[in-house]
Specification:
With about 250 residues, the protein is α/β, with parallel strands linked by helices. The protein has nine helices and twelve strands. It has two domains: about 100 residues, Rossmann fold, CATH 3.40.50.10090; about 120 residues, 3-Layer(aba) Sandwich (Rossmann fold). The strands form three sheets. The chain has a five-stranded parallel β-sheet with strand order 2-1-10-11-12, with helices on both faces. It has a five-stranded parallel β-sheet with strand order 6-5-4-7-8, with helices on both faces. It has a two-stranded antiparallel sheet with strand order 3-9. The two termini are about 10 Å apart. The mean pLDDT is about 95.
Amino acid sequence: MAGDSQLRVRNILISQPKPETEKSPYFDLAQKLSIEIDFRPFIHVEGIPIQEFRKDRINILDYSAVIFTSRNAVDHFFRIAEEARATVPDSMKYFCISESTAYYMQKYVVYRKRKIFHGKQTFKDLIEIMKKHSSEKFLLPSSNTLKPTIPDLLEKNGFEYTRANIYRTVCSDLSDLADVNYDVLVFFSPSGIKSLYQNFPDFKQNKTRIAAYGPTTAKAVKEHGLELNIAAPSKEAPSMYSAIEHYVKKVNDL
């Protein structure tokens, strides 16, 4: 396999925005393996207009706590609050899925003066913290692609909550990539696969290798009849860049 020049990897497209700093491991990987790695988001987030939000008759001030599952949720919650002219009280409690999401709130509030709680990394971790505040009335700002396990866990544990759709994930325009070919396409969500086919309905895999992060992305790859060549995480490759490194070293005979 390693000796077949047709299988060698020369360039890779990561279906995410280019990292803002030069510290990304992908830059190190490109230099280490002497390959080209490009970045291009296949999906992007759009805020739902305030007029559309009002149709759901949700009043932010009716709630005593907010659940944040991402930075996008933080951004669009405070956007909607401002556009609705709702002054969020200092007494509002915030429950964030991770420490990084919690610290991101400093963009909008004085962190040390607010009641902010966070889990380690998973929503299940956060649920354990929320159980100590089970009497709160929770608002869950979300997108159209919210993981079903999140409302399932909230309902299973008996929390009083309302889901507010305030932003959505949509497919990006990739028409400028029509004549560009990559040896490897890397996906991190089923939405990325959806965008690929929305932009290129007649896409044929041919010799293009497909990399997918996570079981739901891998499932979407297979449901579209594509061959999954690089999967992460795994015992040998806990991250996508380590999975790519392992694969490229093998086929490029490094």
